[in-house]
């Protein structure tokens, strides 16, 4: 899980254009329903709910500060998808729900938010790139800003904008950066990246299946397979001349895939002028590149993927690859109607930054404009008002619609059948039962409505056996004993207790009907949450219970085999289920924090549960295995720092410390394996933990380090002494030799 982090708007690193690595105001651990939504060339937002803490919460003080600081302009760092690094979002709108004591927060990616609020008078530059155009806008803006740009586009063009905000000049107005260079934007915190082609082809192919829950595809777009290119060229004297092709048309490579050529005249006047072209050959070059540039020779597809719905289908594994693609990535889709593969690019996604999974995704065509800020704000505000202030408006709308349809009815025919002794009443759109389509039929068995004549089918009906059939029902309150169906969606379910039973059905080996193999039960009320697993006869084989005291895992005898209880919660400990070494835990062990020893982490059996009051001499400790262990050692966390030579408490000589510390052989607890190590009671105090019952390995390593330093200095002194002796011997030998001569 990856929780977002909240920062104040005046954070010094944010003001410098740096993505903070510290935890700011705090981590948003009480976040609910978070959704990051990004659309190609459009909005990039983060929305979530946040609930206020209550005074009995252990983290009340920090959560109270966080809740109060969820205000406009503050900044949130969150994970936007599975591919990019963390992104910063500036809070744009906060709605406080006084009933539920929560806030609905809407935030926009920081670059879009800040660049909308910055403007300039005029930018007019020639033969420039997208990044240089952005740089010039920023330099001429009335508010200093740390934002920079990057691009892999080398083509140059002219760029002119007047009296505009920076975001609108990037993507939103005629002649904007994406309008001029057709670039694809990545909002990388304080860097705006203008890609020639953002995204990758990750070799993902899918074959669309109709009526598949969670996957919807529509085909649209006007297809062109033959163009008539032309251009009007300025002669420089006020007159113009027309340039056309001698062959008149240019055809797409796939022209034979359709029932006939689909033709369109295309004006290349602007492209010819921008490139300085004047000849027929140059027009032909532009025309041949038109199909590849626009893609207008292929039908356009739009695919909507709901991962939550799709995951419930058997076919999900065929489409799971869609979770491995990112915005702007290309996917090949097999299109049954055309019998061809079509390229579709990811145009929008929704992502849960806490659970780190995709919620939904759309594949289709990109937009080349961003909505104006005023329009966007107004739409967002109206949506929020509709959602939170008028949550039951859909009922009123349904009532109004029904009233208008019924009271505004114009014409119609009432037929009694049979004429002699009527047993049925027909209200129809014609007076002939053979031609009528819209029919309301009423008899002693019920009432029904058909759009296909008097013989039905009657898709909306209310029969005297108590059944009511309808495609859509709008209601303010429904009271029922049982509700049977596939999905129930809505804002809230209120009940004294809510229960659900899911049967596990398997084929009968003997043939015939399926048989029940087991069931799962789910019950929730105001005090607890209960999950039960039962076999076919209804006998409980396991339980998970969650209440205010923690959660508990029970076996079929009602014995607790795992969980986090009151005792463990108070001790800040986690229970490891009592499986043997063939499983994934050690029997009866706990991982906990002993709050009596400065937050010491321990892995102990139940006798040694931190804060349990048990005798530490009876603790049985577990082993810890990891890649590495890191001792936090920053000078920012320390005080009264002085060299070991000036130490007041610790022995300054490592040799003295080592020589006074004995090593022993022993057995630990009931373990038969022989060990070698220290005995705390026979070890000098500077090497011990705070409680005097354990050895501080960090201190021991420090003394070994000190011993190495002392040994190096001693060796250096011995080497110097040896060198002096060798020099003196050499002089004596030379003197003796001279005397002999």
C-alpha geometry: flat
Q: Look at the structure and give the mean pLDDT.
A: 77
Secondary structure category? alpha+beta
Helix proportion? 10-25%
Main beta sheet: strand number and arrangement? 13 strands, mixed
How big is the Rg? 38 Å
- Strand-residue fraction? 25-35%
Distance between the termini: 89 Å
Q: Could you give the count of β-strands?
A: 39
DSSP helical segment count: 16
In terms of per-residue confidence, which ranges show pLDDT below 50 for 5 or more consecutive residues? 366-395, 566-573, 577-587, 607-611
InterPro entries: Phage_tail_spike_N, Tail_dom
Keywords: Coiled coil
Protein name: Tail spike domain-containing protein
Task: Describe this entry's structure for a reader.
By secondary structure, the chain is an alpha+beta fold. It contains 16 helices and 39 strands. Strands 1, 2, 3, 4, 5, 6, 7, 13, 14, 19, 20, 21 and 22 form a 13-stranded mixed sheet that branches. It has a six-stranded antiparallel sheet with strand order 23-24-25-26-27-28, with no helix packed on it. The chain has a six-stranded antiparallel sheet with strand order 29-30-31-32-33-34. A hairpin with an 8-residue loop joins strand 5 and strand 6. The protein is flat, with a radius of gyration of 38 Å. 19% of the residues are buried.
What's the short version?
It holds the Pfam family Prophage_tail. This protein has 16 helices and 39 strands.
């Amino acid at each position: 899980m990856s929780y977002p982090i909240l920062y104040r708007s005046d954070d010094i690193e944010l003001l410098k254009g740096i993505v903070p690595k510290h935890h700011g105001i705090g981590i948003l651990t009480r976040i609910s329903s978070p959704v990051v939504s990004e659309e190609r060339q459009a909005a990039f937002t983060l929305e979530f709910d946040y609930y206020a803490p209550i005074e009995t919460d252990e983290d009340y003080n920090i959560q109270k500060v966080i809740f109060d600081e969820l205000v406009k302009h503050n900044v949130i760092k969150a994970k936007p998808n599975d591919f990019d690094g963390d992104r910063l979002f500036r809070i744009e709108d906060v709605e406080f729900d006084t009933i539920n004591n929560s806030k609905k927060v809407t935030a926009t990616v920081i670059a879009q938010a800040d660049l909308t609020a910055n403007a300039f008078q005029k930018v007019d530059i020639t033969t420039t790139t997208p990044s240089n155009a952005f740089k010039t806008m920023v330099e001429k803006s009335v508010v200093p800003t740390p934002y920079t740009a990057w691009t892999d586009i080398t083509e140059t063009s002219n760029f002119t904008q007047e009296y505009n905000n920076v975001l609108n000049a990037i993507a939103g107005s005629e002649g904007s950066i994406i309008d001029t260079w057709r670039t694809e934007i990545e909002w990388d915190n304080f860097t705006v990246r203008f890609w020639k082609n953002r995204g990758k082809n990750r070799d993902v192919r899918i074959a669309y299946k109709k009526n598949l829950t969670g996957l919807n595809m529509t085909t649209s777009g006007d297809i062109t397979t033959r163009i008539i290119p032309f251009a009007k060229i300025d002669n420089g004297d006020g007159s113009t001349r027309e340039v056309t092709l001698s062959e008149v048309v240019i055809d797409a490579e796939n022209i034979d895939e359709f029932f006939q050529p689909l033709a369109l005249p295309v004006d290349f006047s602007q492209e010819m002028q921008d490139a300085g072209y004047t000849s027929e050959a140059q027009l032909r070059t532009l025309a041949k590149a038109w199909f590849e540039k626009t893609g207008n020779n292929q039908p356009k597809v739009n695919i909507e993927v709901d991962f939550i719905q799709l995951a419930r289908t058997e076919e999900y594994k065929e489409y799971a690859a869609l979770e491995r693609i990112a915005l702007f990535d290309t996917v090949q889709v097999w299109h049954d109607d055309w019998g061809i593969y079509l390229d579709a690019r990811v145009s929008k996604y929704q992502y849960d930054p806490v659970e780190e999974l995709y919620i939904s995704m759309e594949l289709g065509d990109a937009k080349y404009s961003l909505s104006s800020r005023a329009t966007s704000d107004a739409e967002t505000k109206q949506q929020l008002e509709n959602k939170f202030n008028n949550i039951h408006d859909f009922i009123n709308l349904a009532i109004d619609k029904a009233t208008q349809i019924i009271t505004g009815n114009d014409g119609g025919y009432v037929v009694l059948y049979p004429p002699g002794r009527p047993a049925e009443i027909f209200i129809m759109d014609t007076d002939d039962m053979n031609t009528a389509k819209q029919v309301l039929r009423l008899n002693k068995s019920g009432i029904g409505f058909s759009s296909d004549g008097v013989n039905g089918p009657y898709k909306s009906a209310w029969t005297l056996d108590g059944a009511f059939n309808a495609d859509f029902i709008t209601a303010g309150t429904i009271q029922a004993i049982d509700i049977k169906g596939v999905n129930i969606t809505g804002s809230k379910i209120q009940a004294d207790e809510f229960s659900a039973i899911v049967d596990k059905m398997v084929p009968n080996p003997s043939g015939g009907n399926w048989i029940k193999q087991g069931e799962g039960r789910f019950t929730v009320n105001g005090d607890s949450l209960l999950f039960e697993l039962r076999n076919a006869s209804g006998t409980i084989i396991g339980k998970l219970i969650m209440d205010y005291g923690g959660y508990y895992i029970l076996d079929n005898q009602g014995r607790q085999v795992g969980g986090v209880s009151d005792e463990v919660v108070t001790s800040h400990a986690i229970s490891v289920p009592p499986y043997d070494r063939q499983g994934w835990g050690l029997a009866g062990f706990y991982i906990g924090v002993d709050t009596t020893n400065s937050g010491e982490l321990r892995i102990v059996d139940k006798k040694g549960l931190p804060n349990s009051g048990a005798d530490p001499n009876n603790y049985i400790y577990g082993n810890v295995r990891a890649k590495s262990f890191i001792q936090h050692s920053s000078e920012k966390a320390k005080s009264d720092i002085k060299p070991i030579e000036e130490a007041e408490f610790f022995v300054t000589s490592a040799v003295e410390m080592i020589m006074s510390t004995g090593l022993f052989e022993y057995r630990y607890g009931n373990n038969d394996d022989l060990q070698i190590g220290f005995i705390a009671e026979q070890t000098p105090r500077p090497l011990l933990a705070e409680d005097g019952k354990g050895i501080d390995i960090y201190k021991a390593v420090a003394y070994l380090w000190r011993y190495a330093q002392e040994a190096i200095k001693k060796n250096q002194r011995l080497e110097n002494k040896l060198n002096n002796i060798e020099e003196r011997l050499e002089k004596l030998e030379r003197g003796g030799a001279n005397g002999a001569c």
